[in-house]
Fold this sequence. Notes:
Blueprint: H1 2-12, H2 15-43, E1 48-50, H3 59-68, E2 72-75, E3 89-93, E4 99-101, E5 105-110, H4 128-138, E6 141-149, E7 159-163, E8 175-182, E9 192-194, H5 203-212, E10 216-224, E11 233-237, E12 243-245, E13 249-256, H6 259-262
Parallel strand pairs: 2-5, 6-8, 10-13
Antiparallel strand pairs: 1-4, 3-5, 7-8, 9-12, 11-13
Amino acid sequence: MNATLGKILVALRTPFALKIYATLGVALVLLLLFDKVLMPFYVKGGGIVAVPDVSGKTFEEAERRLRDVGLHAKKGYEVSDNKRAAGIVLSQNPAPRSQVKEGRSVYLSVNAPRKTTAPLPDFKGRTLSDAKLTLERLGLKVGAIKETPAARKEDEGVILSQSPSAGTSVATESAVSFTIGKIPPDESGVQQGIVPDVGGKTLAEAEAMVVEAGFTVGEIFYRYSTSLVPNTVVAQTPRKNELAPLGKPIALTVSTNDKEKEKEKPVETDDN
């Protein structure tokens, strides 16, 4: 036991051990210096002040008010509130009455003045939902919506004209009116629609598309195929993109890998 203790004492006195002691001692001194000297100096380097509330003031007024208490005003992002005067401070960071060090910057969001937009895009040929998204991004509103008989199937549900016209610069929140193409009723007065293209869709997808377009799902026919996934639509009646009275049943022919199932009903031969 005494021999082991002696070996430990000898090891503790080696040059390597003495270097470790010196390194630890220096680290301890630096830690105490940072904690007792540097940190108090940093904290006490400037006084603590309360951030004044400068909302509702112009940026120049806010800047003077903050400078009086030892703070610096910085312009943050611009926002737009048409119910408030242009050029006034709407918000600030840090918030009013926050306790901060003297000399800190306070970021102010200033109400931007009303501006004219860039020239209006040409909305002709676009859907109304697409136009609404664009107008929202430009800070504009949708005005009156009129419908006019569509001369072509391609004009159904799309914008045919707009007011103001494309290229016009308008003020923020101005309204833009549109004329939308609408397929007229048939000779009996029944409103018509465009038959969707469901070729290559699954039966479930095709049924959903047919109903969404305003039609109903008619008879389901089967065609034997070893190359297609079962229940893939291979034909439809009426054909895709034809005009048909809304509510009309749309018959679908789908693939099957069961020959017996194909015989259950006559095979529809009307291809897409």
